[in-house]
Each structure stands twice: as C-alpha cells, then as structure tokens.
Amino acid sequence: QVQPVESGGGSVQAGGSLRLSCTAPGFTSNSCGMHWYRQAAGEQREWVSSIKADGSTSYTDSAKGRFTISKDKARDTVYLEMNNLKPEDTDMYSCRLMCRNYVSNWGQGTQVTVSS
After folding, report:
1. 49, 75, 106, 112: which has the fewest C-beta neighbours closer than 10 Å?
2. Whole-angstrom Cα distance, residue 41 to residue 109?
C-alpha cells in the first residue's frame, strides 16, 4: 500500500493560518479520493475533510468556512488550507487515499499546534 507524506504543520497563534500538503504517488492515476484526519493524544482519528476523484469536497462541521481542500493533480498532492485556527484544532493531521483498488496506509502525520 502507498504511504502518503504530509507536511506544512507548525505552531501558530489563534486566528492564524497553515497550509498542509499531502503527497502520494498514484493519487491522480488511480482516481483516488484524499481524506484528511486529525488525532489528539489518546483519541481516535477524527475525519476533517475529503476531496474525491470527481473534485467534490466535504468538511466536518467545525471546519466549514475556515478550511479549504484542493488538489494539484500533476503533483499528486492535496492541500488543506486552514484559516482562523483555534486551539481546538491542535492535533496531529494525517491523510490517506481511497482508490478504486486499494486504500493507502496512513502517512506519518504533521503536527498542528494553535496557542490561545
């Protein structure tokens, strides 16, 4: 299975912005959807946002109006732009693919820390 690579996390003040990236070879060629999740220590992963192969997007309620998911098919990359970040957004963010014939492994994740 493919393992995506995430990047773009960091530490910001509340109200700040970050742009996360998730890159996985085969994302475009295998008509995959890309799905972002976040996970706090000791908790289960929580779904955040998705972009399907047809380009349709979706967001968890807490992200609507603040986060935007997009893709660059030529680079096999999906972006998650996060604006007006809140301390509650502090988590490890990971992504995975869901494709016609397989589901990818989780990436290593990228840490997002938002201070009050």
Report:
1. 75
2. 13
Q: How many CB atoms lie within 10 A of CB 98?
A: 15
Nearest to 71 by CA among 41, 49, 43: 49
Please list, in sequence order, all residues whose beta carbon lies within 8 angstroms of the beta carbon of residue 59, skipping any fewer than 6 positions away.
Answer: 48, 49, 67, 69
Which burial class, exposed, middle or buried, applies to 96 when counting CB atoms under 10 A from its CB (0-12, 13-18, 19+)? buried
Encode pLDDT of 65-98 as tens digits: 999 999 999 999 999 999 999 999 999 999 999 9
Q: Are 73 and 55 in contact (CB under 8 A)?
A: no
